Amino acid sequence: MHYSIIRRLATQPKLANVPKRKWKSVVGLEVHAQIASASKLFSGSGSSFGAPLNSSVAFFDASIPGTLPVLNRKCVESGIKTSLALGCRVNEVSMFDRKHYFYADLPNGYQITQQRAALANDGKMTFPVITPGKKVYYKTAKLLQLQLEQDSGKSLHDDYLKRSLVDLNRAGLPLMELVFAPDLETGEEAASLVKELMLILRRLQTCSCKMEEGALRVDANISIHLEGDPLGVRTEVKNIGSVRSISQAITYEINRQLETVANGGVITNETRNWDAENRRTVAMRDKEVLQDYRFMPEPNLPPLHVNLKPGSKSTEDLLSVAALSLEIPELPEDTRQRLLEQYNLNAETAIILVNEPILLDNFLSISRSLSDMPNKVIYNFLINDLLTYCNKLNLDVEKCSISADGLKDILKCLHSEQINLQAARQLIELLHNNPKVKVNELIELHNLQQICSPEEIEELCQQAIANQAKAVQQYQKGKAKALFAIVGEVAKLSAQKANMKLVVQCLEKLLKPSKK
Amino acid sequence: MRAIGSDTGGSTRNPASYCGVVGLKPTYGLISRHGLIPLVNSMDVPGIFTRSVSDCVAVLNAVAGPDRLDSTTIRQPFRRLKLPEIGQIDLSTVRIGIPKEYHCQGLSAEVLETWSKVADLLECSGASVRQVSLPNTAASIFVYSILNQCEVASNMARYDGIEYGHRAADERSTEQLYALSRAEGFNEVVKTRILTGNFLLLRKNYDHYFEKALRVRRLIAEDFVKVFEASAKEERVDILLTPTTLTEAPLYKEFASLTNRDQCAVQDFCTQPANMAGVPAVSIPIRLSQAGLPLSLQLMSNSLNEQLLLTVARWIEAQVGFDSLEHRQEYQASF
């Protein structure tokens, strides 16, 4: 310890002459996405999440000798659509391989995957990076490979009875493994990539993307190096359970590596687990020995051929990539562009709306049916009021119980000045808690109508003027801002229900003549 | 008598040959492997044992054809075979090839004599018979050995005592459970194959052994294509005539004196090139040896040419009139 301090002090002056090089962090992602399909990749058993233990297990899934894999056509279609949406080259011929390792929840002793020739290669994803408090920017990451493979079963450990049990419901479920190049630098970029990927997969309906169900799993490879040097030794972080955790885990791991190196330590190639509770990465206890998976071609599955001819049609034996490309819906980035062009939204608003599919649906639906309402009123209400309310409750907007019709009714009342913005905000909460009650009834019940009658307004204003003599004086001396205090008083007196536009007009009228 | 076997390197044809019955290994992919316990998936085919060739056709007609549950079955619909009556069989258009490489070390004089006699018989009856070459035949046993051990290592990985089968009493850890279950459950032959197979599949060995074996396998398959589909018509043959086994059935003491690998090398020499190439082959009994044991010959044809293969087999069957039961007297006398 002493030695290193002395040494550092001794060498510091020399270092000062050399231009200081910056540390760079490098992040690459591997994503496993469960393909949304009614049955497994190679067997006919069901695939619903949460089915009773070991109830969705075909003989093949339990590795009964004599059973053979039969490739699920729907899964190949989903894989191809996903590849196309991510700009990949779909390979005319791809193959399946056996990857051998022993694990209690891997019944065959091998996983069928695509190692030598994957379904697709060389794609890329361009996505907006959202960092709180920073300007949004776009980043691109290369997608090296997209392959089809089987999921494993699940081991359940009973600590009390000291035994392990195996559930094979997940064994053989279809996965797409997406291997991205290490083109990212930060946790936010990684989280943004995954967020965009989830939007795309959901549009394609090829994956539910429910991370909490394990339908989408993210492993991150992280390293640091000095600018100009080759890439450093990387660690792999697994067990990342949510989009937010991706950013946290990677940021933590980058900082841990920087700190390790700063303290004279060395980064070792290891697998670390994300501990979400304590918000840190932890080295996996059983140190992984270098595995040799003894890959071998899967002899029971012939090579997978696809038809790459433009304009071709799919047949019983051969899927047409061109035909599948016609089934690809509008992708998130196209939607953003459309929002910019057709709805005159700014880029940031478009990104927020597209990133919350439910907000986008509501926006498009409300904008269509209330054509005289300015788009700005709609998206401001959705983003500034609805989204803020949900964030405050730590509630996923998707889970908010307010329907599009409910939002429409609130906006209609707001637009017709039946209620003011304060009341509209209150209605969000009321409607979320009482989703079955009509907006008009809630307004009646909670007496939220805006006060618009000139007499009532004038009466309120007069009283406010009386209450705020000091502000009145200042205002009349020319301090325009003092009017806010008086307006605020009216709001208070009216229990936030006065029509503020009318109040301001009225106050100006009442206070100006005396100035003459 | 009808029975189903499996044939990876000759396991239907060899016993059929020794026992004096008909043994057919159909074209790879003609019969579904669904339900067949795998040994070497890319060579395994369900085989058919019968007393006669026509019984064999009946069984084949019942079980052949595409199966949704086996992706390696041939997709085109199977056309049921119908063999002509013996009298209607015309050998004048049939070209028979005698591959010289099958005249190998260890071939017994009796088998060689049987082989020559049947070749003569075919020639005398109008078939064109000539010598051909399948130059890579001798490599087959090595290729087979490598592919077999690799696939066995892979296919046996499922026997871990977790889902089914023997489970050892050691439950200290999953690894211990695997190790003991597998140590107790497998015999020496299987253990040797698993260890060798896993060694051959290591990343550093894969290209040298597995990949190379696949390439040589291709050469072996091409040997067959060259004789069955030669561009020059005069070089083409329809049927290959070979021994099935090099000798009559050996005594247990002779058999047990060899290692498993040598047993295969001798027994499978003539049979497993057909598994490498995927072509159909049938063993038919011809006569009894001096010792009263059946001697058989093998016929091979191009893929999916079972119709001609079994037609010629049926013709030979009718000529040689082999019936092991009829020879029972002679059988007993020789012991």
UniProtKB/TrEMBL annotation, chain A:
Functional summary from the UniProt entry: Allows the formation of correctly charged Gln-tRNA(Gln) through the transamidation of misacylated Glu-tRNA(Gln) in the mitochondria. The reaction takes place in the presence of glutamine and ATP through an activated gamma-phospho-Glu-tRNA(Gln).
SMART domains documented for this protein: GatB_Yqey
GO molecular function terms noted in the UniProt entry: ATP binding; glutaminyl-tRNA synthase (glutamine-hydrolyzing) activity
Protein name listed in UniProt: Glutamyl-tRNA(Gln) amidotransferase subunit B, mitochondrial
Principal EC category: ligase
Pfam families: GatB_N, GatB_Yqey
EC number of this enzyme: 6.3.5.-
UniProtKB/TrEMBL annotation, chain B:
Record-level GO BP terms: glutaminyl-tRNAGln biosynthesis via transamidation; mitochondrial translation
A GO cellular-component term linked to this record: mitochondrion
Molecular function GO terms recorded: glutaminyl-tRNA synthase (glutamine-hydrolyzing) activity
Boundaries of every Amidase domain copy: 3-310
Name assigned to this protein: Amidase domain-containing protein
Organism name: Drosophila gunungcola
Classification of source organism: Eukaryota, Metazoa, Ecdysozoa, Arthropoda, Hexapoda
